[in-house]
Amino acid sequence: MSETKHTPGPWELNPRGTDTRTPFLISSKHGCMIADAGGAMPISTNAANARLIAAAPELAEALRGMLDMFDWDPCTPEPEPGTAIYEARAALKKAGITE
Question: Does residue 5 form part of some domain?
Fold first, then answer.
């Protein structure tokens, strides 16, 4: 697996009080802004999106760990499309986390 290119986690979700345009800020453990979750969507949708974004580093690391557990045998054939391992690899690749 390749080196991490995104801002390392953990990330935190910081509510912005009554600001309805950008009610949630996602920041790194060092306080650097990762993303604003706001815009034209309802606040409940923004909150759900912000929680998912904030959890992304931990989700990616957990997925990498699970793949490491299942990919240990070099004699195992490549996983077929639609299988959990295939989809996990595809998700990490889409995020730019794997080679």
Answer: no
